[in-house]
Amino acid sequence: MGREITKYSLSGDATLNGMFAMVFAEAYRKDDSWKFRAPGEPHQTDSFVEILKKHM
Q1: Please, what's the b/e burial string for 17-42 (b: 16 or more CB within 10 A of its CB; e: otherwise)?
Q2: Fewer Cβ atoms within 10 A, N terminus or C terminus of the chain?
Q3: Is 13 a residue whose pLDDT tops 90?
Q4: What's the predicted TM-score (pTM) here?
């Protein structure tokens, strides 16, 4: 516990201009075990439903 597993530096990143939400982490099941992914994926919408639709 207490160890850093991912880090994002968002300050001054011009590619994030106009973005309103970000998927920082995903937890999912694969081959009967839990997996973790840190995509750092920005989105132009602030609608959770719209972001969720992309994963279904």
Answers
A1: eeeeeebeeeeeeeeeeeeeeeeeeb
A2: N
A3: no
A4: 0.68
